[in-house]
Amino acid sequence: MLARRKTITVKIGNILIGGDHPVAIQSMTKTKTSDIEETIRQIEELEGAGCEIVRLAVKNSLDASALSKIKKAVKIPLVGDIHFNWRLAIQAIDSGVDKIRLNPGNIYKKEELKGIVSALKNAKIPLRVGVNSGSVKESNSKRLTMPDRLVASALDYVKTLESLKFYDIVISLKASNVLDTVEAYEKIAKLCDYPLHLGVTATGLPYAGAIKSSIALGSLLMNGIGDTLRISLTDKPQQEVAVAKIILESLSIRRFGPQIISCPTCGRCEVDLEKIARDLELRISASGRKLYSKPLKIAIMGCVVNGPGEAKEADIGVAFGKKEGLLFKKGKPVRKISSGECVDTLIKEISKGL
Length: 354
Description:
Layout: E1 10-12, E2 15-17, E3 24-28, H1 36-49, E4 53-58, H2 61-73, E5 78-82, H3 86-94, E6 99-102, H4 110-123, E7 127-132, H5 146-163, E8 169-174, H6 178-189, E9 197-198, H7 206-222, E10 228-230, H8 237-250, E11 259-262, H9 273-286, E12 297-301, H10 307-313, E13 316-320, E14 324-329, E15 332-338, H11 342-351
Parallel strand pairs: 3-4, 3-10, 4-5, 5-6, 6-7, 7-8, 9-10, 11-12, 12-13
Antiparallel strand pairs: 1-2, 13-14, 14-15
């Protein structure tokens, strides 16, 4: 078990973050928020994929007013994402969001913050101070690095909020550069006890974005830093959730259902292992990953070199040889099965609780 950084606890709708609470998965809708029907549909898809907090862009008054109808139609906590116009933040709060995000780079006047803080206090909801490298204000000192600029921007903003007697705060410091992101979070983690929302911004297309995010967020989470996370991909938001779940599962921070371990295959493999693994994943996904309530490891191995050993280490597994495989349960061989019956057999065994 990884030791977590100690933070205060913040409540976002029905989700608690910080303290000893689970690291929560967040994503963001990619619809126009004023398109209420389409936005609700995407939120429901995200919730089905395992998302726990959803952020929505609030570009104008139409978006802000739409939030009240969206809020009534969904159960998941909603975050209003506000830039430039401080009045939209107040309108979003009045529409019932569970948190708002402000960018210190474009909403920073104290008089404006006073109005927002007053509304936040009345609604009893938190604020995320979301600093991005692309919009961080220019530093008075040219010698400050990007991580230092991100940290300074966030802490200056927090200082203003604290002067207004507001402490229900979450912080994020996102850069598109992995090393800048990691350094910024490591530095601020030592300087405050507010929960941190992790992310790398503008990571790009799915393959590169997943890798960049995994390197940055994985290294931070391994050091106990991070209370929520969002994977930013140029892709469907459900894919962001899928990557987030894999990162958390890989570090044994959380479990969301059966975990599949499969070998990369080589010239020794004599079955279509890729098809078997994909078919099994689809069957598990179709079940909502609720086939088995406890953490479960499933091994699908393509040859006799490492296959039997890996299958024995899993809760259930199959090690293939020539066209057929040996089924293992709890480390013990059970019987031989064909490649064609592999998926059905595994699903049946998992469904009955092994």
